[in-house]
Design a protein that fits this description.
The complex is a heterodimer of chains A (463) and B (427).
Chain A (H helix, E strand, L loop, with lengths): L3 H11 L4 E2 L2 H6 L13 E4 L3 H14 L3 E4 L16 E4 L6 E5 L4 E4 L5 H10 L2 E2 L12 H7 L6 H4 L6 E7 L5 E5 L11 H5 L8 E8 L1 E2 L3 E9 L2 H13 L6 E6 H11 L9 E9 L1 H17 L2 E7 L2 H12 L1 H8 L2 E4 L9 H14 L3 E4 L10 E5 L4 H20 L18 H20 L18
Parallel strand pairs in A: 2-4, 3-4
Antiparallel strand pairs in A: 1-2, 5-6, 6-10, 7-11, 8-9, 8-10, 12-14, 12-15, 13-14, 16-18, 17-18
Chain B lengths: L2 H13 L11 H6 L6 H12 L7 H8 L6 H5 L6 H16 L3 H11 L1 H18 E3 L5 E4 L14 E2 L6 H4 L3 E2 L6 E6 L2 H6 L1 H13 L2 E4 L9 H4 L4 H16 L5 E4 L2 H14 L7 H9 L1 E3 H7 L11 E6 L2 H7 L3 H8 L4 E3 L15 H4 L1 H18 L3 E4 L2 H13 L6 E3 H11 L4
Parallel strand pairs in B: 5-6, 5-7, 7-8, 9-10, 9-11, 11-12
Antiparallel strand pairs in B: 1-2, 2-3, 4-6
Helix pairs in contact in B: 1-3, 1-6, 3-6, 11-22, 14-15, 14-17, 16-18, 20-21
The chains are: A alpha+beta (463), B alpha/beta (427).
Chain lengths: 463, 427
């Protein structure tokens, strides 16, 4: 429980009724898209930068944790208030301030929904590529804080490749502006890059400047079917090696294909061990050329069948299977635990073998249907969270999966962030020196440790 | 608590992966921007209750009642969680444990006693001139003072109540020489008491297609507003009376002109009779021959001797027709079949209009906020009329258009068809 004095001070700053402490509100702000739930002590929604600043001043003065929150769709536990304190809802920051067509940038507030922004940008003929699966419900602030990715990452990169500047409120209430609208800035430390993916542990994002690019003229989709999932893995490595960069390159393994077919009954070939779903974009000439090249590579690597879609309807049909995976998995087992451990593309075949071994070892149902193009295989374990014995096996399997990714030269997180879920493994990836360096950076920004405590860093002595 | 109910909750809770997709479709959530009002949040509240972390508080009841039952969260859920069922069960549980709110209790007692309801509404139609201010076009009225029983907001307009309910104007059987088919007509309350002209149009259109229409006098409110508020007991009573009124009829189909009534006949009667071994088979049997009017007309060989109607129209998808029964193409096809019609699709035609049955009585401001988006979509199209398949949507959209100063009438799809037949002299 927060001291009444602190609650009163918050209410004096924000106004009556704006500090929620009723049980219904606390429960509703105790989670995100992960499993742990922790009750905050209070929930507040800020309407402007000065309010954020005032909240931080109070939190700093009393050492009360503050957890900034967008839509709460994160998948690493970024907004779960592990140490209680204040959940600071940022959804009222919902304006697109400017889309500059001549200089190709946009200034937005962090509470804008990702898809709304992408559509607004498309309307003026430009393109904002990051497309996390949750884009219809996720906010841009959360995307920046977790450095979200998406299927287009293979060609267009992830959120950090588009952040040019940020406005943040620091833990002492001061307002920091970093970066600008100039694309070629090279001097000093790249602070926007440092702060993108900082998971609300360094400052609270109140404004974002995004880089925008031109909209590709044409797109085309291709589906390749394989008798061996390893061949699909080899195709991915080979495509990249040959210099073709598809917009998206998605893999679906046999378990996934079967689950989707059972769910949709659209006549998918369930005898196949894997599908690759590819999209290429560019000028009409480029698209045709790339598509032919990709088709050849698929066949050389062992694809037994290749389908191309020329109309939007055909391509929608090919994508339908991919989009229905979540629902299909729900029919098999109620609980789905998805990971985003990512490996270098050349290691994809090896990672697939390891994942299958892990699933077998712990007798778990695992589906693989990830963004193979950037090495992010998205292994998903299908389980039932009410089965505590199986959940223990899941935990062991997940830890082994992280080990496998790191040992193949990969990373814990291709797009979800570290949060609390992967914090225990961070040292393994960073090494002692790397880890201590991260901690020192944290100390510079947040010496009292009030911002999103318990995330990324496991040891608490600094807090 | 019944084991059946607990199982429903536990199974659905296990499926929720807390992805938050429901945030992108929930109209109420988007209006209030508070996680505790979206399906994901409410699922966590049900979970908290099951795990003894929260009691049946007023706050919990408030979250459960502030829902349009538009099924948008259910339809969009990637894990297939039956959120609508979870919240319906919680509403029922709350009603059992804590009782219905006073306003709803009074309104529903009226509905249960059909004769009194008939009388009081007819009485209302006669005296409403004293109570309501008439609109300039005499299409609707503004209450002169708030009526607590109906929860009417002072700003709200409601249409002039019918002088005579539809069913009192219709014979039990509308005879046809050599009928091709014989159908039973379930009118629903809104067509019966508020928009009888829609009901008459529906009968005319069926007549134009050589179909004999039986309108059982003993039919009742479908019970939807009652059991969705949690009162399963009264709901079951009405459902059983309806099943009894229709089960012995010699008809090829049961046709509803009311979106919620259609969902009730097709699905919800079975849901609330799940544990009633005697009546459940009856509900199942009748569900198989229940149709929405637009769906029914798309299945028969339609008389296409349509007269020209030179109008620009748009169509609003009622939640209980679109998501509730999967019917969105049929009404559009009917509309487009009429010569002279210029059909323009409005943006987000499938977004809820904000009415939500009695939701708009309890939460008028939020309901209006949601409806304003609908009004904006309609304003962009600038149609001569707005068509829809639900009289509750019609009433709420009419109210919204009026409040925004837009003089665009709203009609049931079937009225356009009747107009077209009339122009051709078919009826």
């Amino acid at each position: 429980m927060l001291d009444l004095k602190i609650l009163r001070e918050l209410e004096e700053t924000l106004g009556r009724g704006r500090v929620k402490t009723d049980m219904e509100s606390l429960i509703s702000y105790s989670y995100d898209g992960t499993f742990q739930e922790r009750l905050p002590d209070a929930v507040v929604k800020a309407h402007d930068v000065s309010e954020v600043s005032n909240i931080m001043k109070i939190s700093g003065a009393y050492g009360v944790p503050v957890v900034p929150r967008g839509a709460g769709t994160g998948l690493s536990g970024g907004v779960v208030p592990l140490k209680g304190g204040i959940v600071l809802e940022m959804t009222a920051f919902n304006k697109i301030i400017e889309i500059n067509m001549r200089n190709k940038y946009a200034i937005v507030e962090p509470g804008v929904y990702t898809n709304d922004f992408a559509e607004a940008v498309e309307k003026v003929g430009l393109f904002y590529p990051p497309d996390p699966a949750s884009s219809k419900s996720s906010t841009l602030g959360g995307n920046v804080a977790e450095c979200a990715g998406g299927p287009r990452g293979v060609k267009y990169g992830v959120t950090k490749d588009y952040v040019m500047g940020l406005e943040l409120v620091l833990p002492d209430g001061e307002i920091l502006n970093v970066g600008n609208m100039v694309d070629g800035e090279t001097g000093w430390f790249d602070l926007p890059l440092l702060l993108t993916g900082s998971e609300g542990t360094l400052g609270i994002i109140t404004k974002i400047i995004f880089r925008l690019i031109d909209n590709p003229e044409h797109k085309q989709t291709l589906l390749a079917k394989y008798d061996q999932v390893i061949d699909a893995g080899k195709t991915v490595s080979s495509i990249i090696k040959n210099g073709v960069i598809p917009t998206t390159l998605e893999i679906m393994d046999r378990t996934t294909i079967q689950a989707v077919e059972n769910f949709l009954k659209i006549g998918l070939d369930t005898e196949k061990d894997a599908f690759l779903l590819l999209e290429v974009d560019g000028s009409k000439y480029e698209v045709a050329k790339q598509l032919e090249q990709v088709k050849q590579i698929c066949l050389e690597c062992g694809a037994v069948e290749v389908e191309t879609a020329s109309t939007k309807e055909e391509s929608d049909r090919l994508w339908k299977a991919r989009r229905s995976i979540s629902g299909a998995c729900g029919k098999i087992n109620p609980t789905k635990i998805g990971e985003d451990a990512t490996v270098p593309r050349s290691k994809i075949p090896e990672m697939i073998v390891r994942l299958r071994e892990i699933a077998k070892k712990y007798q778990l149902k695992m589906v693989i249907f990830g963004h193979a193009g950037d090495g992010n295989l998205h292994p998903n374990i299908l389980t039932d969270k009410r089965n505590s014995e199986e959940m223990e096996r899941v935990e062991k399997a997940v830890s082994e999966l992280f080990n496998a990714a790191v040992s193949l030269g990969g990373t814990l997180s291709g797009e979800h962030g570290i949060g609390y879920m992967k914090a225990p493994f961070l040292k393994m990836e960073m090494g002692e020196t790397g880890y201590q360096t991260l901690k020192k950076v944290k100390e510079v920004f947040d010496p009292k440790g009030v911002l999103n405590p318990g995330k990324m860093f496991m040891d608490e002595e600094m807090f | 608590m019944s084991k059946h109910r607990q199982e429903i909750w536990e199974n659905e809770l296990a499926k929720c992966i807390k992805c938050g997709t429901c945030r992108s479709v929930c109209q109420v959530f988007q209006s209030v921007d508070d996680e505790s009002y979206v399906a994901r949040g409410k699922m966590r509240l049900v979970d908290a209750y099951l795990n003894n972390k929260i009691n049946l508080t007023d706050g919990l009841a408030q979250r459960m009642s502030m829902c349009l039952m538009c099924k948008a969260c259910t339809a969009s859920c990637p894990s297939g969680v039956k959120t609508d069922r979870v919240f319906l069960e919680m509403r029922n549980y709350l009603a059992e444990e804590k009782g219905l709110s006073k306003v709803k209790r009074m309104a529903f007692t009226w509905l249960k006693y059909r004769n009194i309801f008939d009388f009081s509404l007819r009485f209302g139609a006669f005296f409403q001139g004293l109570v309501f201010k008439g609109l300039p076009d005499r299409n609707g009225r503004i209450p002169r003072f708030p009526i607590p029983v109906a929860g009417f907001n002072q700003r709200r307009i409601i249409p002039t109540l019918a002088k005579r309910p539809l069913r009192s104007m219709l014979p039990e059987v509308v005879k046809i020489d050599k009928p091709k088919m014989r159908v039973a007509f379930f009118t629903g309350c809104m067509m019966n008491y508020v928009y009888p002209e829609s009901g008459l149009a529906l009968v005319d259109v069926l007549r134009a297609n050589d179909i004999e229409v039986v309108t059982p006098k003993k039919q009742q409110c479908c019970g939807t507003p009652i059991f969705t508020s949690g009162d399963f007991k009264t709901g079951r009573l009405l459902v059983k009376q309806n099943l009894t009124a229709f089960c012995d009829l010699d008809v090829d189909a049961i046709v509803a002109g009311c979106a919620s009534g259609g969902v009730a006949w097709k699905h919800e009667f079975q849901t609330i009779l799940e544990e009633d071994d005697e009546m459940l088979p009856v509900a199942k049997k009748l569900a198989e021959k229940s149709y929405d009017i637009s769906e029914f007309l798309s299945k028969i060989e339609l008389n296409n001797n349509f007269g020209r109607v030179e109008k620009t129209v748009t169509y609003h998808d009622p939640c209980h027709l679109n998501r509730g029964q999967g019917i969105s193409k049929e009404p559009r096809d009917l509309i487009k079949a009429i010569p002279g019609i210029k059909f323009i699709e409005m943006s987000h035609a499938d977004n809820c209009c904000g009415s939500g049955g009695s939701f708009n009585l309890s939460y008028y401001e939020v309901s209006r906020d949601i409806n304003n988006k609908k009004v904006k979509s309609i304003g962009e199209v600038k149609p001569d009329i707005v068509l829809t398949g639900c009289s509750a949507c019609r009433m709420h959209i009419e109210d919204g258009l009026f409040q925004s100063g837009l003089n665009i009438p709203v009609r049931h799809t079937i009225e356009l068809l009747a107009e077209s037949y009339r122009k051709q002299g078919v009826i």
